[in-house]
Design brief:
about 325 residues, mainly alpha, Rhopdopsin 7-helix transmembrane proteins, 3-stranded mixed sheet, 12 helices, globular, GPCR_Rhodpsn
Length: about 325
């Protein structure tokens, strides 16, 4: 097939989560309630960390960046999903589909690399406490956050480059509520075996290696903490356990989606919803609920703004 016939498909049709109108209406209000409750919480985390000098350590700086990344990540697919609940024919343009894949994987990979940075921060705090301020300075943190975004960009641009060169000249129906690599590749009217291997190497393999590295590193840190005093051991261990929870919450659904052959599997849409809509916004909340310093800073900030509001109303 000549290159001039490539990308004949200009629009993809999304089947969504359910064909039943009643179910779509229920899901719309559930997701809307979830967003109106959890999204402001993530914004509050960012404002609290940036506004309270007591939270000036690298750990909280990275937490604020995680909350920002998750807010961006949850702005890629859910807005269109919510709008599509009221559409009889759910469609997305070819360019919109490529953009959705690009930003989804840019932000997802950046978050994975940021979690590696947070693991490095905890490693230095536990194993090199006397050198912590020099090894994890604010400049180093900015550099590592920038590297996370750069790594996410490289990952996403390679992925989109592999998909964009495929010809789409036949079926255009995606059995999902957003564009993602496995479903889109299956619609290409050519042999995609090589592309599937390359995308798995760039996507599934990277996810799996990051997950295993984080799991091993935090397990070793917990073993290292056994030599600490009970008081210091308890606080740092709690932080490490929180990180492990977030690692599982983020990576297990991603492994289920991307670390397998490109074919439909049971509960794929449910896992996709958890991975792209629910879990990202809850990640920073998990850190906050297990961190007394952040909760205390939030109460101080809310109390401070509340007192200002009362003063202005007088």
């Amino acid at each position: 097939m000549g290159q001039e016939n490539w990308t004949v498909v200009t629009t993809f049709v999304l089947l969504g989560l359910s064909p039943a109108h009643e179910v779509q209406l229920i899901l719309f209000f559930l997701f809307l309630i979830f967003y109106t409750v959890v999204l402001p919480g993530n914004v509050l985390i960012i404002l609290t960390v940036w506004g309270d000098p007591r939270l000036g350590s690298p750990m909280y700086f990275l937490l604020a960046n995680l909350a920002f990344l998750d807010i961006c990540y949850c702005s890629v697919t859910p807005p269109k999903m919510l709008a599509d609940f009221f559409s009889r024919r759910k469609t997305i343009s070819y360019m919109g589909c490529m953009a959705q894949i690009f930003f989804l994987h840019l932000l997802g990979a950046a978050e994975a690399f940021l979690l590696l940075t947070m693991a490095y921060d905890r490693y230095v705090a536990v194993c090199q406490p006397l050198r912590y301020t020099s090894m994890v300075s604010r400049g180093v943190c900015w550099a590592l956050v920038g590297a996370s975004w750069a790594g996410g960009f490289i990952h996403a641009i390679i992925l989109v480059g592999l998909i964009a060169q495929l010809p789409f000249c036949g079926p255009n129906v995606l059995d999902n509520f957003f564009c993602d690599v496995p479903q889109v590749i299956k619609l290409a009217c050519t042999d995609t075996a090589l592309v599937e291997i390359l995308t798995f190497s760039n996507n599934g393999l990277v996810i799996l290696l990051c997950f295993l590295f984080l799991l091993v590193s935090y397990s070793l840190l917990l073993l290292k903490l056994r030599a600490r005093s009970p008081r210091g051991q308890s606080k740092v261990a709690s932080t490490c356990i929180t990180h492990i929870i977030v690692v599982f919450v983020m990576f297990v659904p991603a492994i289920y989606i991307y670390c397998r052959p490109f074919r439909a599997v049971p509960l794929e849409k449910v896992v996709a919803v958890l991975h792209t809509v629910v879990f990202p916004l809850t990640n920073p909340m998990i850190y906050t609920l297990r961190n007394k310093e952040v909760k205390s800073a939030m109460r101080r900030m809310v109390g401070r703004y509340g007192s200002w509001g009362r003063e202005l109303s007088k």
